[in-house]
Amino acid sequence: MNGNILVVEDEPKLARLLSDYLKASGFEPFLLAHGSEVVAWVREHKPALVLLDLMLPGRDGMDICKELRTFSSVPVIMVTARVEEIDRLLGLELGADDYICKPFSPREVVARVKAVLRRTRDGQTVQAEGLVLDEHRFRAKYHDHDLGLTAVEFKLLQFLVANPGRIYSRQQLMDQIYPDARIVSDRTIDSHIKKLRRKIEAIDPGARLIHSVYSVGYKFEPVPIA
């Protein structure tokens, strides 16, 4: 992973301070002060992480984060002086990986940067071409688009992907995603599989990753079956 960190901050002194601390920790920071420049910069340079201020001239951080998530899984730490809980929730729901409130210690910011990079690096496993699973955040991406899975859908997909080509019955899959042995219909698996396929095909209509095996169950196979 590269060490390029994009710092988007319109307060010059704070931006320089963050830059100095990041450099001292071995990162290579790049500074932007205007919100309208961020998306194009990320597309071109593909940084390891973005430190993104919420209140920016030109375009606010939440709007930027929302657009970044349409094409990139780059980790985003949102930085703001606005501490209302709704802002925290909105930031995270839009795809932010962490949230830091001003005032803060630059050392804390560097520690958060390292933690997020470590978490995203260790938690993401590319299991098939175009498919990335992040087990720490229960997030699945397909061709850099978030699939928007529920926790149960994620666990089901994760189990199938970890065992490519192997056929599992509905009961076996239920045992994996409902370890508390709750009583649910085996048709619940059919419903989850249908939703998974729909979300994957919304990104790539030609994708055929999860296959039905008549009267037996399901398997994950990234190559279409003839």
Describe, in plain words, how this protein is organized in 3D.
There is one protein chain. With 226 residues, the chain is of the alpha/beta class. The chain folds into 2 domains: 4-123, Rossmann fold (3-Layer(aba) Sandwich), CATH 3.40.50; 129-220, Winged helix-like DNA-binding domain superfamily/Winged helix DNA-binding domain (Arc Repressor Mutant, subunit A, Orthogonal Bundle), CATH 1.10.10.10. Helix content is 41%, strand content 21%. β4, α4 (85-93) and β5 form a beta-alpha-beta unit. α6 (151-162) crosses α8. The longest helix has 18 residues, at 106-123. The relative contact order is 0.09.
List the helices and strands and how they pair.
Elements: E1 4-8, H1 12-24, E2 28-32, H2 38-45, E3 49-53, H3 61-68, E4 76-80, H4 85-93, E5 98-101, H5 106-123, E6 124-128, E7 131-134, E8 139-142, E9 145-146, H6 151-162, H7 170-177, H8 187-203, E10 210-213, E11 217-220
Parallel strand pairs: 1-2, 1-3, 3-4, 4-5
Antiparallel strand pairs: 6-7, 7-8, 8-9, 10-11
Helix pairs in contact: 1-5, 6-8
